[in-house]
Each structure stands twice: as structure tokens, then as C-alpha cells.
Amino acid sequence: MAKEPNPKFADEVAKQPGGETLSLCFQCGTCTGSCPSGRMTSYRTRKLIRRAQLGLEEDVLKSPDLWACTTCYACMERCPRGVDIVDIITVLRNMAVKQGIMSDEHRKVGEYLLKNGATIPLNEKYEAIREKLGLSRRPATTLGDKKALEDFQKILKATGFDKLLEEKQ
Ligand code: SF4
Ligand code: SF4
Predict the structure, then answer these.
(1) Does residue 169 carry a pLDDT above 70?
(2) Which of 23, 28, 76 for a ligand 1 pocket mutation test, highest count of atoms within 8 Å of Cβ?
(3) pLDDT at 2
């Protein structure tokens, strides 16, 4: 059931970089029809944007739908109103994260990044290919250089990234 709307919510989204075009959506549904995630799940891009326009803050920020977007940009390329859909979703996700709300999958990716300095691991197979090419098994990045990883972790902690990953509820 829809929660009490926040009349200021749409303005709060629109004030943030990337959220400015929220009000331009006229609900044509082209985004939903273009969305590969929506083909596999109950996620509907148009509805998410509409809920944000209507100030249904809780419905938007606590919905698993918010995390179903893969940021493929198919919707944004086709939107006849030039709505920056992915940027709006990013703004909404940032708002959710500040309230301690994040999908388990996104949290795990964030934790992996914090621990290893990359979101995609380098496995035995790729290390062997690198070796075959005459390269070091691991690159001179956070994946292979301890100092680079420590510096990277320092930056993430200085920006408060690690705190955002903490579960608040
Ligand atoms: S394609 Fe654009 S205008 Fe149409 S519903 Fe989606 S965001 Fe709104
Ligand atoms: S960017 Fe997100 S909302 Fe848009 S089509 Fe791709 S998955 Fe769907």
C-alpha cells in the first residue's frame, strides 16, 4: 500500500544534479517497453518515475525496484521527453543509501570493492592468460599492488564510502 506522500520529495530529487528532468515525464511508457530488467522482473521504469513525481518517498526508496535497473541506458536513449532516467535513478539510490537502504547485491559489490579494490575479481584463468602474454600475473593496480590498494582504501574511507555500506536498519 502507498505510504503518505512527501509533497517536497519531487523537488528534493529535482534539486540534485541529475534529477532536474523528473517533472518532464508524461508517462508514455516507452522506458518500460525498452527495459530489459522489466522483462525478467516486476520492475516498471515508468511507475518508479511516477511514484517519485507523486512524492511517494517511502514506496520509491524502500522498493526493491530501485535496484533492478542495470543502468543500460536503453530507456534514456528512447525517452521522447529527454528525461534523464538513469541519472534520476542514481539520485534516488543515493537518497536511499543515505537512509541505510541498499540491495544486498549492491552492498556486497561495495564491500568487495572496499576489500579488493575492484568489483570484478582476477581469477586463476585470467592470471594464466596474462602470464602467457608475458605479463605479470597481476596488474600494477589495486589488484596487484598492495600500496595502491591501501591508498585506494584510504580514499574510500576518507569519503565515507565504508560508512555507507553499514546496515542501518
Ligand atoms: S519514456 Fe520518458 S516520458 Fe515516457 S514514461 Fe519513460 S520517462 Fe516518462
Ligand atoms: S537503464 Fe535501467 S531502467 Fe533504463 S532500460 Fe536499462 S535497466 Fe531499464
Answers:
(1) no
(2) 28
(3) 54
